[in-house]
Design brief:
mainly alpha; 60% helix; elongated
């Protein structure tokens, strides 16, 4: 039994689980693209839905403030969704390029818990490493 104390190589995720997480990522991607499309309507040339030349202009200052706030809020949501889409695309690239390491923590190399990946299929860190990263940012 020479070498029985050697560290064992981590086992890759099963094909069934890889297929499941691919579906979860693609589902999230479709949802985000749909949301971004909805937000795109807010920023389009006819954002108010009226085609007249004065449609983009409110007549009352309070209306102008409300319109500006709504556009800013929509932009914020769109930019958050855009970042989320980028993370999803990165996870899909990892899954397709190196399926044997998908679901492994980028910090410690351990498996990321199934429940964590199910909730955040784009997760790159196990919960312990992510918590350490968050604590380091705070302090």
């Amino acid at each position: 039994m020479v070498g029985s104390n050697a560290p064992k190589k981590p086992k890759p995720m099963s094909k069934k689980n890889l297929t499941y997480f691919e579906g979860r990522l693609l589902e999230e991607r479709r949802r985000v693209l749909k949301e971004l499309g909805h937000h795109g309507e807010t920023f389009g040339p006819n954002a108010t839905g009226d085609s007249s030349d004065t449609a983009a202009y409110s007549f009352h200052m309070a209306d102008q403030g409300t319109d500006a706030m709504e556009r800013e809020k929509a932009f914020l949501f769109a930019s958050q969704e855009g970042r989320f889409l980028w993370h999803i695309d990165q996870a899909l690239r990892r899954l397709y390029r190196s399926p044997d390491t998908f679901g492994k923590c980028h910090q410690c190399g351990e498996d990321i818990a199934f429940d964590r990946l199910d909730a955040l299929p784009h997760a790159r860190y196990c919960i312990d490493c992510k918590q350490r990263e968050e604590n380091a940012k705070k302090g």
